[in-house]
Amino acid sequence: MTPHLQNTTVVACHWTEQRAVSNLFGYAGTADLLIEHKVHGLCLVDLKTQKCLRTATGKQAKPKPYSTWCYQLAAYRAALGVRATSINLIVNSVTPEMPVEHVWTEAEMESGLRAFMAARELWNIENDYNPAQTVVNVTADTMVLTA
Questions:
Q1: Tell me, what DSSP letter sits at residue 60?
Q2: 50: part of which helix (H) or strand (E)?
Q3: Exposure check for the chain: N or C terminus, fewer CB within 10 A?
Q4: What is the CATH number of the domain that holds 52?
Q5: Distance between CA 32 and CA 147 in Å, rounded?
């Protein structure tokens, strides 16, 4: 865990890198962190790197979160069945500096889940995939959180 997380914002880390599976909707992924945040309470965190170059005036550019990051967090949150604030922790891949937290609003998360589900449905159609007809095999050494 970065010093930023250890010393300033995290009260507790509940888990790292947990598989999130939605058998109902037929998708899965690996969520990065579930933490107790000093300001935001229970938070689902996804780590991202981004090239944050200097502007023409020499000022450090601010990281820009992508809407697809919200879609991903919304899908994880739905699959895990947790009610948590969703945060992307953005690490500058060019210059060593403190990571930047981007906190998604509940309205953004609701829209993000709708967008993810629409994209998932298109993928299902294009790939002739029906999650209701798929069997998920899980080994005993794999922890899977499902909703």
A1: B
A2: strand 41-50
A3: N
A4: 3.40.1350
A5: 17
pTM of this prediction? 0.84
pLDDT digits (tens, 9 = 90+) for 35-88: 999 999 999 999 999 998 878 887 878 899 999 999 999 999 999 999 999 999
Is 59 domain-assigned?
yes
Instruction: Compute the distance between CA of residue 30 and CA of residue 76 in angstroms, rounded to an integer.
Output: 8
Containing structural domain, residue 36: 3-127
d(CA 83, CA 121): 24
Q: What are the residues whose beta carbons fall under 8 Å from the beta carbon of 41, sequence distance 6 or more?
A: 84, 85
Of 62, 112, 109, 54, give the one whose Cα is nearest residue 90: 62
